[in-house]
Amino acid sequence: MVAVDPKQRMGRKMKGIILAGGSGSRLHPLTIGMSKQMIPVFDKPMIYYPLSVLMLSGISEVLIISTPVDLPNFERLLGDGAALGCSFRYAEQPEPKGVAQAFTIGESFIGSDKVALILGDNLFYGSGFGSWIRRNTDPDGAVIFAAWVSAPERYGVVELDCQGKAISIEEKPVKPKSNYAIPGLYFYDNQVVEIARNIKPSARGEREISAINNEYLDRGSLTVKVFNRGIAWLDTGTFASLSEASTFVRVIEERQGLKIGCIEEVAYYMNYIDQPTLLELAERYSNSGYGDYLRNVAHWPRITDN
């Protein structure tokens, strides 16, 4: 297969990490024999959705972090990324010691570059979402996002002033100071590695991502971007939210005839691969509607504003 050279696509350097670890205990017995991020969300494995977000961001070098038991399955599913014009690497998280641990596990992968982190159970969708997040991939400091939710106590919560600047960040507060939850998508400059290395574990014994964001807040280098009503954010940590996400994807795809989280389509639209390569990928799924969809995509105009 011939893919477009990643160096011809990007003027700036940012790498991506998908944290796909944990035991998924809230989804037992589904996750006793498989990683939560391998569970299907309608017609694709869950990990396709966060991976497609990083690819839409212009990121082609991705580190997937998971448990020693689950990593071989991710490698079998995704390979080395070359077929998509990307580079995928893998690292173990033997124990779930917090989201921020991803940066110490991935320190050698990150090197001197900036880095995006996305949680493996997050799904984003909205008109223009791709072009919107691409505007945030060269941060001087940190860029995080805020989404209005009805139950903010389940998440990290950011309090904003009247100008949209962060005042405080709390992790799963009993009495939230706002309804703005922080979705599992973060963009950082290279300082994040040093910050993650030095933060102390919380009372739960974990290195919290909120501690990193609070450090950037204290340094005056944290930017918060608020999702508008046209952007949907779903997580899939419970049976109900997993079912809701699958229904959401099914309804959108059947209504529009366009797929959400199709990594081959994103690779094509982002010029990671060319048309002949996309058609070769479609042959892998020759007996499914997924392959038919990719063959159709190969003959549509390329539109990257996804």
Short précis:
The protein has 306 residues and is an alpha/beta fold. 31% of the residues lie in helices and 22% in strands.
Q: Can you give a write-up of this model?
A:
It holds the Pfam family NTP_transferase. Belongs to the glucose-1-phosphate thymidylyltransferase family. Its cofactor is Mg(2+). The chain crosses the membrane at residues 46-66. The chain is an alpha/beta fold and 306 residues long. It has a domain at 15-140 and 184-261: Alpha-Beta Complex (Spore Coat Polysaccharide Biosynthesis Protein SpsA, Chain A). 31% of the residues lie in helices and 22% in strands. The chain contains eleven helices and 14 strands. The strands form four sheets. Strands 1, 4, 5, 6, 8, 11, 12 and 13 form an eight-stranded mixed beta sheet that branches. Strands 2-3 form a two-stranded antiparallel sheet. Strands 7-14 form a two-stranded antiparallel ribbon. Helix 10 runs antiparallel to helix 11. The protein is globular, with a radius of gyration of 19 Å. The two termini are 25 Å apart.
The CATH architecture term of the domain at 15-140 and 184-261 is: Alpha-Beta Complex
Mean pLDDT score: 91
Q: Kindly identify the CATH topology of the domain at 15-140 and 184-261.
A: Spore Coat Polysaccharide Biosynthesis Protein SpsA, Chain A
CATH class of the domain at 15-140 and 184-261: Alpha Beta
